[in-house]
Design brief:
Length: about 280
């Protein structure tokens, strides 16, 4: 029988792990790279000089920050100010924040973060959402806030099997809200979460009363005629979008999207994107 218990969780990274990370950062062997050329045209959202990946200089600055300026223990203490929990859903460990409002009529709200982010992106919203009167708002605007970590992200991991696409994640979130005792709730998503949240409304329509997202993703259906009239620059953005979709939530999606592309678009013209149908956007 599956373990459905919800257990309190506190972040406690062993000091040995932090010491090991510091040692490995200090021993970084920097790769050689081609001279950085920023004179070329920008293709899609990728800036000139980044065509082959992240420039070494950028990574050096980041590692320097980790080594000499970043204080993990300070962040760990801040994160632990929020009630956190673990539970297992569909064979996967799920980590989440759960902060109840002091307002008795508050509406439950689940917030799904983006890729490659974590639940951290919502921390600054928790106080205002749960206690609007304490922040100049009205009691009617209060929410009980649930912020899960996507499978494989932060402490919802590691994943134990492939297949954790947005559809499966949405079903898991519906189960999470059921376990918390919420039979009427709203869903919000940002970035990859903006793909998951609308699916929650589809997989759990009896309980989800509304969906809010930061982005509106509108994906091609697979009909090549949809690309008529697009400029080469617009097609470059579309190809970048396909890469995002392939890896937005989990790797299993990319395989399905490639199969769908082969089925619907057996041929394509030069300059046309050969695959942009999204498995994340369809049940």
């Amino acid at each position: 029988m599956a373990d459905t218990k919800i257990r309190p969780f506190r972040i406690q990274i062993p000091q040995a792990d932090l010491d090991d990370l510091a040692d490995r950062l200090a021993r970084t062997r920097w790769a050689n790279e081609l001279p950085m050329d920023t004179s070329g045209p920008q293709r899609g959202p990728i800036p000139p000089g980044w065509e082959y990946g992240v420039p070494v200089g950028y990574v050096r600055d980041l590692v320097d920050h980790w080594q000499h300026h970043y204080d993990w223990r300070a962040w760990e203490a801040r994160l632990n100010q929020y009630p956190q929990f673990l539970t297992e859903i569909d064979g996967q460990r799920v980590h989440f924040l759960h902060v109840r409002s002091p307002e008795p009529d508050a509406l439950p709200l689940i917030l799904t973060h983006g890729w490659p982010n974590t639940f951290l992106e919502y921390l600054d919203l928790v106080a205002a959402l749960t206690d609007p009167r304490g922040h100049g708002g009205e009691a009617a605007d209060a929410f009980h806030v649930v912020v899960p970590s996507l499978p494989g992200f932060a402490f919802s991991g590691p994943t134990r099997e492939p297949g954790w696409d947005a559809q499966r994640t949405a079903r898991a979130w519906a189960e999470l809200m059921r376990r918390l005792g919420y039979d009427r709730y709203g869903a919000h998503g940002n970035d990859a979460g903006a793909i998951v949240a609308p699916l929650q409304g589809r997989v759990d329509p009896v309980h989800v009363i509304g969906v809010h997202v930061n982005q509106l993703f509108s994906f091609p259906s697979g009909d090549p005629a949809e690309f008529d009239g697009l400029t080469p620059e617009e097609l470059q953005y579309l190809q970048f979008l396909q890469g995002f979709i392939d890896h937005a939530v989990h790797d299993s999606c990319s395989r399905r999207s490639r199969r769908r592309s082969r089925t619907r678009w057996p041929t394509h013209r030069p300059g046309r994107s050969p695959g942009a149908a999204s498995c994340l956007a369809t049940p």
